[in-house]
Amino acid sequence: MKDESRDDLIDVNALFLGPKSENRDFFMQMLRFIMNDHADWRICYQPDDSPAFSEAQRSEPRFQATLQRTQQALVELAGRLQLSSVPWFSPRYLGHMNADTLMAANLAYMLTLLYNPNNCAYEGSPATTAMEIEVGRQLARLLGYHPDRAWGHVTSGGTVANYEGLWVARNLKSVPLAVREAVPELVTGRTEWQLLNFSAEQSLDLLDRVKAAGQMDAVRARSARGTGVTAGKLGKILVPQTKHYSWTKAADILGLGQDNLVFIRVDDRFRLDVQHLRETILRLAAEHTPILAVVAVVGTTEEGAIDPVHEVIRLRQELAAQGIWFYLHVDAAYGGYARAMILGADDQPIDLAELPAAFRRHHVFSEPLDWPDPDIYAAFRAMAEADSITIDPHKMGYIPYAAGAVVLKDRRVLELISYFAAYVFEKSEDNPMLLGSYIMEGSKSGAAVASVWTAHQLVPLNITGYGRIIGSSIEGAHRFHDALRTTPPYDFHSRRFRVHPLVRPDFNMVDFAFHEEGNPSLAAMNELNVRLWEKCSYKSGRMYSEDFITSKTALSREEYGESPCRFVRSLGIPEAEWDRLGSVYVLRSCVLTPYLVHQTSFVEYWGNFLRSMSRALQAVV
Ligand SMILES: *Cc1c(COP(=O)(O)O)cnc(C)c1O
After folding, report:
1. How far apart (Å, rounded) are the C-alpha atoms in residues 495 and 485?
2. Fewer CB within 10 Å: C terminus or N terminus of the chain?
3. How confident is the model over 134-181, as pLDDT tens digits?
4. Cα–Cα distance measured from residue 398 to residue 99, given in angstroms and rounded to the nearest whole number
């Protein structure tokens, strides 16, 4: 069977250098190839040119001393890095969204670095600009968009990808009003409210007519990019309380104003509350305030929660019947690559009922795992309906920094952000692909792009490739969660401590807190967890002796409303404590490592965790 043979190509253990540099020999071999290959390239370019300096010059003392100083500088750098870097490669590290990165991606980065391409302009990066466009198409496919109609590219990270999504939403929202000023005959009979509720498709079809009328420049000049935005005129931006802080920055930087952000409640699993979203939109509509954009998150930064994107889409359809429309951006910086879990070897979605069999066939989980639940599955499916999506290769793509990406569903929107008339050369044979003209950044690393591209050559963006790596990470997270839930209490001097997971993870982030049985004080519990974190983090300054390294987060009322209250109550802490303090401190473990699924390594690392926590508890109580 075609599926099986392709599936057999990927062994996850062969993808990473490994926690003990297990694949060191191969890596060395490839480094030698990279260097020789590049050095030969230089020699073969105009072979008759003479060398710039001779062997005799190279043996001069100053030359030799310079080389020696180069070596010293590198040795010093290596020392500094080893002394104060975090061992992300180790399964002992369960903190931020970091783990080992793919060997292929690291090697591709190093190889490309020697050519130093700049993806701002085609002229500076003929090879890697083409790769960036290709990566955009691959990600479009992964997200369920039509690769010929969508457009995506590699950004420095999810932050800039979010800025670009909102940039497009802002300019698009202003199009119908700009058309009313520049070519009013195209929108006769439309009220301002109707113009502010044009769907993306309506606005883009309208732009096609503007283009046919030769009025593109006039409309672009009257859109938000030309005129700026009057406070609140284009409406509100609705983001869930679990938002990444890049959204607050985005509202600032794009001149939309932080006052125009509205935070939507999340439920006690930290997923967007669609009922509250509906009420908020209807309340705003009743006072004639349009919605500039709604943001849903696939993989919240602190909890890994997956918002019900499908319900947001259903709500949009329902409201469209009432003449209300909103742009939907999905912030899947963290969770986006996990959509590979539901795509078959043909890159098409697998039905929910078929998934367990497909997971078995493709060795996605080592033991059956009850994941995804129907809402998570439906959310992944529905991403294809969003107008734009942020997805970070440098998170679940296991790519080195800096590689985020944004994908736009309908490439026609490029005309609203491009700095050259995209439509002039769009159809020409020698499309110069001047990326710098439609992106927020200028000069940018082609090496990062080559790194993503190479990883995608090797690891299919479906169940047979990324599905298997991410499957291991999700399974490891669930195993860690289940072990936390069932671990016996720690007893010291007639005091008893238990560890409590915050929620069953939607994805691969496990939040948890230690709590002393019978302790009624939230402040005391927070204090305990702060001190535990200090013992199990970079802060302890003992990276080499650390048994377990994690991160932390505080879930405060200011950001999360009452969502964390249920967790606090479940520990037997009175609700009044939450009312008074309004913040609960939890440890936060993102399980990116694919190595927690092997029974022996899980037992070993879980043992490390227990010993580490036991020592940390004894030290702090
Ligand atoms: C990480 C993250 C971002 C920001 O991405 P960077 O790559 O750090 O710029 C945005 N949104 C979410 C949900 C994230 O998890």
Report:
1. 19
2. N
3. 999 999 999 999 999 999 999 999 999 999 999 999 999 999 999 999
4. 7
- Decide if 423 is catalytic: yes
Exposure of 487 in the CB half-sphere (CA atoms within 13 A): 26
3-state helix, strand, coil in the chain (%, to 5): 50, 15, 35
DSSP sequence for 436-497: GGSSS-SS-BHHHHHHHHHHHHHS-SSTTTHHHHHHHHHHHHHHHHHHHHHPPPEEETTEEE
What is the four-CA torsion angle of 291, 297, 298, 299, rounded to 10 degrees?
A: 180
- Tell whether ligand 1 has an atom less than 6 A from the beta carbon of residue 157: yes
Supply 335's token pair: 């969770």
* Strand pairing class (151-155; 404-408): antiparallel
Q: How far is CA 431 from CA 42, 126, 449, 473, in A?
A: 28, 12, 19, 40
Average pLDDT over the chain, rounded to an integer: 93
Instruction: Point out the ligand 1 atom lying closest to the alpha carbon of residue 402.
Output: 7
The answer, yes or no, to whether any atom of ligand 1 lies below 6 A from the CB of 404, is yes
141: which DSSP letter? H
Q: Are 434 and 418 in contact (CB under 8 A)?
A: no
Model confidence pLDDT, tens digit, residues 526-568: 999 999 998 888 776 666 666 788 999 999 999 999 999 999 9
Residue 520 CA, ligand 1 centroid: distance in Å: 36
Tokens 């929620």 belong to: 503
Count how many Cα atoms sit within 13 Å of the Cα of residue 467 in the half-sphere of its side chain: 31
Task: Give how far Cα 467 sits from Cα of 335, 340, 363, 450, 462, Å.
Answer: 12, 5, 9, 21, 6
Q: Which residues pair with 282 in a beta bridge?
A: none
CA-based radius of gyration for the chain = 26
- Catalytic residue of the set 115, 423, 544, 585: 423
Which amino acid is it at 499?
Answer: V
Angle at 547 between CA 545 and CA 552, to 5 degrees: 110
* Kind and range of the H or E run holding 377: helix 374-382
Q: Measured between alpha carbons, how far is 474 from 597 in angstroms, rounded to an integer?
A: 9
Distance 334 CA to ligand 1 centre (A): 6
Domains assigned to the chain: 1-43+84-102+460-621 (3.90.1150.10), 158-391 (3.40.640)
Closest ligand 1 atom to residue 162 Cα is: 10
